[in-house]
Amino acid sequence: MACFGWCSAPKVDEDIDRPYSIKRPSKVVDSADQAFVEDPIGVIPNGSESEQGGFKSLRSTHAPPLPTVHTPSKAPSKGSYAKVEEVVGSIPISVKERASANIEWVVGLDFGTTYSGFAYAKAADPEHIHVYYDWPSRNSEKPYCKTLTGIYYTEEQAEKLQCASWGHHARSDSVVSTAKGVYLSKFKLLLKKDLDDPFLVSSIPSPLTVNTIITDYLRHIGELALTVIKNHEGDVSFNRDSVQWCVTVPSIWDESAKQQMKACMVNAGLVSGKGGIESVKVVLEPEAASFHCHQILRQKHKDLSLHVKDKILVADVGGGTVDIVVQELIGSGNDYKVQELTESSGGLCGGTFVDESFMRFLSKRIGCLDEFLRSGVPSYRSRLLKDWEEIKCGFGHEMVSNNDTKEITLHNKLASKWEAYDAERGYPPRQSYGEIELTQQDLKSIFDPVVDEIVELIAAQLMQVEDIKVMFVVGGFAGSPYLMQRIRKRFSRDVKHIVSPPNPGSAIIQGAVALALNPDAVVARILKKTYGTSVTLPFEKGVDPSEFLKISEENGVEWCRNRFDSFVKKGTRIEVNKFVTKEYVPHTRGQAQMMFDLYSSNEQEPRYTEGPTVTREGGFAVSLPESYSMDDMPIFEFSMYFGRSNIELRAEAQFKQNQGEKARAMELPVRYYS
C-alpha cells in the first residue's frame, strides 16, 4: 500500500512506502473567510501532528525533519465492504460546482430501524415540502408517513437469494408465501459496530451482507421516490441527476456507519457517477427534527416564540435509536441558526426494543413459544408483532381505562402446542389457549425498561445545561401516549414547554429537506470523540509497551509504533466551516496515492491507536495526478472538516507558478475506505 510522508526525512527500518514527517506550526482555517489562527508546534507524522489542542496544519517549512513512521494500514476489506471501496473513489464536486449544480429537487430519505419514508420539495419552492403517504400495501395498513423497513428474499436458484418484495408487502408475503425465503428487518442496527445482538447478526443468511440488504432496500424506496417526483407535475423531461439526496442518520453513529450509508446510496444507483458519494448529503436526525419543530412553532404556534440565546433540547425517539441534543439559538425567525451546547447523546432504546420486551414477556408466559417460532411457523413472529403494534400505539391513551385488558388471538397450531406443553408438565389447564390477555400492569412491565432508559438519557442532558426553554420530542416512538406521559410527568418542572409536533414520525424527513435548503442553519457542533491517526514516535522506556517497540537497524534508535496523533479533541466546539489543513509530499517516485487511517477515541488524550477506548473509523485515500515531477513537486493540500454531519476531506494539488505562467490548482479524487 502506498502511503505518504516527507521525502527529506532519513529512513527508519521500515518499508520504502511508509511515511515520514517533520515539525510544523499549525493553524485553523475558516472556509468562509480563510482566516488563520496559529496553534502550538507539535510533532507531525504522516501528515498529522500531536498538539495541546485546537487545529493543525503543515503550512510552514522552516523546521528540521524528524523521522516518524506510519503504522501500516490494513488493505480495505474484500468482504462485505468491497463495494464501498469501489464506489467511493468518485471525484468530488468542488464547492463552486455544487453551488452551481442543476439541483431542481431535494429528497429527504429517513431510513429507519422499523419504518422508513421520504419527503421532497422543489428547490425553487422550498416552503412546500411534500411527505409521501401512499405506501403500497396488500393489507389495510393505517395511513402513515412511512412503510416498514423490511425486505423479503426468496431463493430463485440454489443458494441464490433475490429480493422479492419490500416494505409492507415484504412482511405480508413472508407470511403467505409458499416459496423458500427469508424476511429481514431491523438490519439498519447492524451498521453500528458495537451492537450486541447475536440473534440479529445470525439472521442474515449467506451470501447476503448488511451492505447488500441496505442497498437493495434503498434502491426500491429511492426508485419509488423518483417515480413520485417525476409524476408530480408530469415532467417528461425529468432528470434524476437534478435530485439532491439527503439521508438522515442518528447522531450517535460513528463515521464508518455514515460513510457506509452514503456508499449504499451510490451502489443503489440513485446517485450519478459525476457526483459520486459526495453528492449524498448526511443529515443528523435530531438536527432535522429541531429545524422542523422551529418552523412549526414560527408558523402555527406564535404564542410560543423562540429568541436568540434560547436553549432547546431535542429528543429524537425512533424505532431503534434515541438521539438527544441541546442547542442554543443564535439566529431566529427566517435567519434560524443554532449551535450545539453539549455532546449529543443517545442509545439503542427506541420503540423496537419495546417489541423485543413484548416477545420476552410472551416467551415467559408461553413456555413453548420459542421452539414454535424456530421449527413450527417461523413467520408467525411477524404476525405477533403486527397484532402487538396496535396495542403498543394505544397504551397510555387518556381514553383507555387503567382496568382495560387487551387480547391477542393465537395461531391454532401454537394453541394446541401450548396446551400439550402444559399437560406434559402437569400444569393446571388454562381457561383458553387460543388467546393471551395483557393487563395494564403487564403492558407497563413491557414498556418500563425501555422508557426508563429514555427518560434517564434526557435527564443526563438536562443536568448539563440550565434554563432549557423548550423540549421537542419527535420520532416514531414519540407517538406513544405512555412515553409522552412519562416524559411530561418527569420533566414538566424543569422545562416549561414540552412539545411533540403533529405527526412526529415525519418531523425528521421534513426537517431533512428543509435543512438541505438551508445549509447554514447549523453553525457549530460539539465533538463526541477525539480524532487522529496512527504514527511512530520515540520510544519511552517504562511507559510504552514492549510489543510496540521498533528498533532502527540503521542507527539503533528505538521507536514506538501505534501512537495516537490527535487532529481534534473530544468536547471541542467546531464551526462547520472550520477545517484542519495540511500539506503533504509523496515519499516515492510514481506514488499513485496518499492514504492514512482515521482513529477515534472517547478519551481526551489517547496515547495509542490500539486498546478498548480506540476505534478504527476507516481512512481516506487521495489519488495523485498521473504525472508530476519529484524535482518540481506540487503542494498537496488536504483540508479535513470535523464539524460537519460527517467528516469530509478535500484534497488539492497546488502547482508551482513558473515564470510567465499562472498558478494553478487541481482538485484530487478522494475515497473513504473501511
UniProtKB/TrEMBL annotation:
InterPro entries linked: ATPase_NBD (IPR043129), Hsp_70_fam (IPR013126)
Region (Disordered) residue spans: 41-78
Any GO MF annotation of the entry: ATP-dependent protein folding chaperone
A Pfam family that the UniProt record links to this protein: HSP70
Keywords recorded for this protein, A-Z: ATP-binding, Nucleotide-binding
Domain of life: Eukaryota
UniProt cross-references to SUPFAM superfamilies, sorted A to Z: Actin-like ATPase domain
Protein name: Uncharacterized protein
Natural source organism: Ceratodon purpureus
